[in-house]
Structure formats: structure tokens, C-alpha cells
């Protein structure tokens, strides 16, 4: 009896201890919730005020607010770390939240945090204030900003020399002033990562996907799967452009200035030059948007109507009051479109919207972010973000796959007639491929370059050369004029100077088709995937909402599985969508006998002025060796501490679910980074959102 009493006494004591541990954990989380939300609002308001009015005073205020916020995030991280080390019996939910809050890559010294904030503000300002000027006949300078002037010129001009002027002018305006400061930023980011035992800042970024060292092989596998489709598109576009631009090579890389976009990432603007069947009515709805007197606000209202039709939320009144949907006449602002989350349902979009089809797509993309914010707004502080950054980017684009279907455009009055012929189908899929398939290699390579920079595999003296090796090797494009290390062409893209993740767009391009495929099944769609629209399908919308409401409360494979029944990213859906086009492209190439690939490159200039032909392999970019600690990196090697975690990563956990599979050893030494590409939320650049939790998949 005494032994039994002792057993019950010990059990009761253990329960009391567990209850106390849980209460302590909940209390700490509540404190972080209150202070974190307050900090988020203060920081975001300061950043919003600066991004929408680029003045020195507002820049100063935003830097101070961001620095104060970083101090809180570092304090919260240290408190969470102490809780996890002292209280081992926390519930899974409390422990996960604490781990999310703990993970960071902020430097410990305030002066270092301030230096990073200042550098990012400087780089963003250089980009946003960039102008390209030409002398007019009256000797005055006419200067063009990127948005909308240079963007429109790149999209609409068919003058080879004018396109070279704009392409080179933009890079001359913003690249060289960024170069030295970008090196400083890399050094400071790596210093912070090193202080928290990350090998380099790239490790910190990649780990938001919770895949350890498996992320890069998975991304490489996805690229390998879609590469044949891209190569067919590239070969076809080059063949058609050669008819218009006689200076082009018939079998080499395409000039980066000829693809209708400042970065050659979206080729839809040259649709008129490459349309497979020109006699079939065009699918562009820009003329009808203008004819029907659409305004930026009306475009946002149209986007809202689609989300509401499937049962998602309408925008709150404050959204319409506080968002900046058009560029102010007398202010300089960051025109790169972004969605913002200020907590408690205060959501906004900042965008210099033009009335055209491309911006209509962007409007849906940004509103997708906002729908995500609204769906998870009631979750705890640590869970208010996407399942992974690619999820966040994919939400709005999943909707646009429905919006862009000719049938839907006709139903909302933006197309006046519907052509269901095979020729019209190929035209439609070509336009979709110019938007999405053309983007695949660029979205894949930007962070490939950046991760190598963080790892020290690309030295500052090689920034530009290695950038162009990657762009030629993966995209099959080449600079129209010689480039040197006096240039800094990566800085011509907003995300480089702002230190915004870019691989999320590649992940999004894969995920959005997986999402679309599953939602179409729920909507009872019958027929080819490219014809599906989920407009007004409440069943599809409900499942979509459930995925959004989960935020980051569970590892992303669980969230993906809830919607799609799959636990891995797969290229099968995007390949199914474009299968009719790929078959047509192959047949067309066989008939017209033009080459595939871009085997040999023309070197643009040598010391003696002689142009030399060099084999593509000699310009192959440096191989991935991101796990190493290469030369030229001014930070310490990561300690093998696992950051206090002793948990399997996602692949291991998934393998353990399979009968007969043995455990594998994985590298857990990577952490997390909030994506700020087209999301500017109430999260600091460094705030971690993920941790390698054990999976509990059922």
C-alpha cells in the first residue's frame, strides 16, 4: 500500500510540475504576443511611411524603428531559448512556438543591426530613385524611372538600339552605386549568422523550407523536370525573334534586352512577335480594360470579387482607406508591389498600378498574400506566416490560373468572344508559358548566385562574371553589351538590394499548379487542366481556406497534404498543364528544323577587339559546394550544435513513416528567414518562422 501511495504521490507531483511548466510557457508566449504585436505595428508603420514617401527624415525614423524591433526580437529569442533549455516538458505546441521565436540571425551588437538597416535602406533607395536620362532636342534631360516608364519601354519598343539603351542605362544607374555597399551587407549578414552558429547567411535562408541539406537537391530535381519544356519554349522564341531582329544569333543565347522585360524573366510582352497563330484573335485584355474605364481601384475590386466568390474574405474597409494603389504625383516611393500585414486585420497593398493585363495579374498575386494574412490573423504570433515562403507567393497566382482562362475572362466581360479551336488553345498556352515557364530559370538562379556569394564561393571580384555565367547557363540569355566587374547587374533587380528571398518564386511556380490541380478536382472540373476555373466553387474555396488558416502551425508537408494529398513538391501538375503546348512546340521544331539549346557563345569583346567563339562549357557557373567553408568568407565555421534541437528534418520524418525504411542522418544546422519579396509584413528580415519539428502525419 505504501508503495502504491508513493506511486500516486510521485505521479501527482509530476502532473503539478507539468501543469506549472505549461502555465509558464503560456505566460511567456502571451507576453511575447502582446509586446510582439506592438513592436510589429510600430516598425511596419515606420517602414510603410518611408516606402510610400522616400524622404531622408522618414528613412531615419524607419531605421530607428527597425533597430528597436530587432532588439525586441533578439530579446524574445534569448528568452525562448532559455525556456526551452530549462523547461523540457513543454507541450508540443508551446515548444514549437518557442522554437520559432528562438531562431534568428541578428547580430548581437546594436551598432551592427543599425549598420544592416542603413545598408538595406541605402540600397533600396538607390533602386527606387534610379533614373535613365536621354538628351532631347532642346538640350534638356528627359529622365525615366523604372516604373512605369522603363518597364513600358522594354515591353512595347521593338527598336533594337533603343532597347539596348534602356537596358544598359538602368544597370548603369543603379548597379555601380550598389556594388561596394552590397559587399558590406553580405559581410554584416554573415557576421550575424556566424554569431548564431550558422555557417553563413544562406544556410539561415534555406532552412525556412525545413529540409536541411535536401533542399538544394530537391530544387535541382524540379528544375531538371521542367528544363525540357523551357528549352522548347526558348528555341521557339529565338526562332521567331530572329525574323524581327536580324542581329540575333540563330543558335546561341538570346539578347537579354529583347524579351519584353527589364530582367528577361517574363516574356509575355513579346507575345505579338511569337504568337503561334496570328490570325486568331489575341488574348490580351488590356484594350478592353482601358475601353471599359478600369481604374487601379476597380482592378482590385475585380480581384476581390473572385476571392469572395469561392468563400474567402472581402477586404476590410481599412484596406481601401490605407492602401496605396497608384503612384503619387509629387512623391518618390518604392513602386515594387508589396502586401503588408500590420496585425489584427490591418492589411494593405502598396503598388504603382497601371491599367493593363500584367498588372491585373499582379493585383491578384498581391491580394492572395492579403487573403493569407486574413486567414491566419487569429493564430498565435509565431504561426502568423505561410507554411513556407513559396506557399505565400503561390496563393494569388493559383487564383490567376483560373482568372486567366478565356472562359472566365469572357464571363466577366473582358473578352467579347470565345474561341475554342486548337489554334486558340495553343495561343493561350503560349501566353501562359511566356509568363510562367519563361520565369522558371530566373527564379531558380537568383538565389543560386546569392547563396554562393554568402558562402564565399563567389568573391566580390567575380560578382558580375558569375552572375552572367548563371544567366547564360540556365536561361540561355546574354548581355547585349560587354559587362565588367565595374558593373553590378544583380543590383538591377529589387530583391538583391532589399535582401529579399527569391527562390520562393520558383517554389511558387511549382506549388501553384499543384494547388490548382487539386482545387479543380474539388470544383468537379472535367477536361484539360488549362481550361479549369474554380470561380464560385465554395467547395474548393473551403479547402483552400483550411490550408491558409493553418499558417505555419505545422510543417509544410502536412499543409500541402491537406489540400493535395501529396507531401512533396512535384512538377507533374505544371507539366500536365503545358503538355499540349510542349507537344506542339516539338512538332513545330521538327518541321522548321531550328536548333534546341544555346551550345556556343559569342564572346562580346577581347583586349585586341577580336570576337571569339567559346564553348558553352567554359562559361559554366561554379559548382554548388555550399556545405563547405570556402576561402574569402570572414566568419567562423558553424558549430555542430544543432541549435539545441534534436529533431529529424522533414525528409527523415517522412521516410520514417514508410514501412521498412531506416533512419537517415541529416544536417540540421540551418535556420529560417522571413520572405520579403512581395510580402512586407510585420516581421523583421531576420525573424524566423520555421523549425525542424517532428512530424505527426496522420
Automatic annotation (TrEMBL):
Enzyme class, spelled out: hydrolase
Signal peptide from the UniProt entry: 1-19
Catalysed reaction, written as an equation: Release of a C-terminal dipeptide, oligopeptide-|-Xaa-Yaa, when Xaa is not Pro, and Yaa is neither Asp nor Glu. Thus, conversion of angiotensin I to angiotensin II, with increase in vasoconstrictor activity, but no action on angiotensin II
Residues the entry annotates as binding chloride: 209
Cofactor(s), by name: Zn(2+)
Active site: 366 (proton acceptor 2), 366 (proton acceptor 1), 495 (proton donor 1), 495 (proton donor 2)
Keywords, sorted A to Z: Carboxypeptidase, Disulfide bond, Glycoprotein, Hydrolase, Metal-binding, Metalloprotease, Protease, Signal, Zinc
PROSITE patterns named among the record's database cross-references: PEPTIDASE_M2 (PS52011)
PANTHER family to which the protein is assigned, alphabetical: ANGIOTENSIN-CONVERTING ENZYME (PTHR10514:SF27)
Protein name stated in the entry: Angiotensin-converting enzyme
Positions with a binding annotation for Zn(2+) 1: 365, 369, 393
Protein residues bound to Zn(2+) 2: 365, 369, 393
Family: Belongs to the peptidase M2 family.
GO molecular function ontology, one term from the record: metallopeptidase activity
Recorded GO CC terms: membrane
InterPro entries referenced in this protein's UniProt entry, alphabetically: Peptidase_M2 (IPR001548)
Keyword flag tRNA processing: no
Cystine connections: 133-143, 335-352, 520-532
E.C. no: 3.4.-.-
One GO-annotated biological process of the protein: proteolysis
Amino acid at each position: 500500500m505504501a508503495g502504491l501511495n508513493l506511486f500516486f504521490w510521485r505521479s501527482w507531483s509530476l502532473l503539478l510540475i507539468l501543469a506549472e511548466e505549461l502555465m509558464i510557457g503560456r505566460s511567456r508566449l502571451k507576453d511575447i504576443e502582446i509586446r510582439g504585436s506592438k513592436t510589429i505595428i510600430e516598425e511596419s508603420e515606420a517602414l510603410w511611411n518611408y516606402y510610400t514617401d522616400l524622404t531622408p527624415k522618414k528613412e531615419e525614423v524607419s531605421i530607428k524603428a527597425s533597430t528597436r524591433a530587432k532588439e525586441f526580437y533578439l530579446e524574445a529569442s534569448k528568452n525562448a531559448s532559455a525556456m526551452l533549455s530549462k523547461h523540457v516538458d513543454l507541450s508540443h505546441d508551446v515548444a514549437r512556438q518557442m522554437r520559432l521565436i528562438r531562431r534568428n540571425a541578428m547580430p548581437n551588437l546594436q551598432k551592427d543591426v543599425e549598420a544592416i538597416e542603413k545598408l538595406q535602406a541605402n540600397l533600396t533607395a538607390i533602386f527606387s530613385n534610379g533614373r535613365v536620362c536621354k538628351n532631347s532636342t532642346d538640350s534638356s534631360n528627359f529622365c525615366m524611372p523604372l516604373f512605369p516608364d522603363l518597364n513600358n519601354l522594354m515591353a512595347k519598343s521593338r527598336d533594337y538600339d533603343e532597347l539596348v539603351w534602356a537596358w544598359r542605362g538602368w544597370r548603369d544607374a543603379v548597379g555601380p552605386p550598389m556594388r561596394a555597399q552590397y559587399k558590406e551587407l553580405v559581410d554584416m549578414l554573415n557576421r550575424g549568422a556566424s554569431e548564431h552558429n550558422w555557417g553563413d547567411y544562406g544556410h539561415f535562408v534555406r532552412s525556412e523550407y525545413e529540409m536541411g541539406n535536401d533542399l538544394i537537391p530537391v530544387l535541382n530535381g524540379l528544375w531538371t523536370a521542367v528544363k525540357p519544356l523551357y528549352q522548347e519554349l526558348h528555341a521557339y522564341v529565338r526562332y521567331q525573334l530572329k525574323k524581327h531582329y536580324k542581329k540575333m544569333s540563330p543558335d546561341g543565347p538570346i539578347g537579354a534586352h529583347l524579351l519584353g522585360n527589364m530582367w528577361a524573366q517574363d516574356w509575355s510582352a513579346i507575345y505579338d512577335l511569337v504568337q503561334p497563330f496570328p490570325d486568331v484573335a489575341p488574348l490580351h485584355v488590356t484594350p478592353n480594360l482601358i475601353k471599359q474605364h478600369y481604374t487601379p481601384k476597380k482592378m482590385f475590386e475585380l480581384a476581390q470579387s473572385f476571392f469572395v466568390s469561392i468563400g474567402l474574405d472581402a477586404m476590410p474597409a481599412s484596406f481601401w482607406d490605407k492602401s496605396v494603389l497608384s503612384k503619387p504625383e509629387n512623391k518618390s516611393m518604392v513602386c515594387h508591389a508589396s502586401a503588408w500585414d500590420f496585425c489584427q486585420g490591418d492589411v494593405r497593398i502598396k503598388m504603382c498600378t497601371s491599367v493593363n493585363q500584367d498588372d491585373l495579374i499582379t493585383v491578384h498575386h498581391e491580394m492572395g498574400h492579403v487573403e493569407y494574412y486574413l486567414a491566419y490573423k487569429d493564430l498565435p504570433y509565431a504561426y502568423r506566416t505561410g507554411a513556407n515562403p513559396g506557399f505565400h507567393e503561390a496563393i494569388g497566382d493559383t487564383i490567376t490560373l483560373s482568372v486567366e482562362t478565356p472562359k472566365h475572362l469572357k464571363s466577366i466581360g473582358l473578352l467579347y468572344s470565345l474561341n475554342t479551336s486548337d489554334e486558340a488553345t495553343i495561343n493561350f498556352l503560349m501566353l501562359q508559358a511566356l509568363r510562367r515557364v519563361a520565369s522558371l530559370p530566373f527564379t531558380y538562379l537568383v538565389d543560386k548566385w546569392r547563396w554562393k556569394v554568402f558562402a564565399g564561393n563567389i568573391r566580390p571580384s567575380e560578382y558580375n562574371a558569375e552572375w552572367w555565367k548563371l544567366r547564360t547557363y540556365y536561361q540561355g540569355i546574354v548581355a547585349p553589351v560587354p559587362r565588367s566587374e565595374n558593373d553590378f547587374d544583380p543590383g538591377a533587380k529589387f530583391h538583391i538590394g532589399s535582401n529579399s528571398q527569391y527562390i520562393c518564386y520558383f517554389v511558387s511556380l511549382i506549388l501553384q499548379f499543384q494547388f490548382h490541380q487539386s482545387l479543380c478536382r474539388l470544383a468537379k472540373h472535367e477536361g484539360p487542366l488549362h481550361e479549369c476555373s474554380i470561380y464560385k466553387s465554395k467547395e474548393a474555396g473551403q479547402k483552400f481556406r483550411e490550408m491558409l488558416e493553418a499558417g505555419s502551425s505545422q510543417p509544410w508537408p502536412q499543409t500541402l497534404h491537406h489540400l493535395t494529398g501529396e507531401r512533396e513538391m512535384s512538377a507533374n501538375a505544371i507539366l500536365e498543364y503545358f503538355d499540349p503546348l510542349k507537344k506542339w512546340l516539338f512538332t513545330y521544331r521538327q518541321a522548321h528544323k531550328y536548333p534546341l539549346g544555346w551550345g556556343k557563345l559569342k564572346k562580346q569583346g577581347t583586349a585586341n577587339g577580336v570576337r571569339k567563339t567559346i564553348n558553352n562549357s567554359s562559361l559554366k557557373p561554379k559548382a554548388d559546394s555550399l556545405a563547405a567553408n570556402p576561402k574569402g568568407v570572414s566568419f567562423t565555421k558553424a558549430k555542430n550544435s544543432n541549435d539545441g534541437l534534436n529533431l529529424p528534418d522533414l525528409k527523415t520524418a517522412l521516410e520514417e513513416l514508410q514501412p521498412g525504411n531506416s533512419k537517415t542522418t541529416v544536417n540540421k544546422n540551418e535556420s529560417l528567414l522571413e520572405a520579403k519579396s512581395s510580402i512586407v509584413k510585420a516581421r523583421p528580415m531576420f525573424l524566423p518562422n520555421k523549425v525542424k519539428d517532428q512530424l505527426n502525419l496522420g
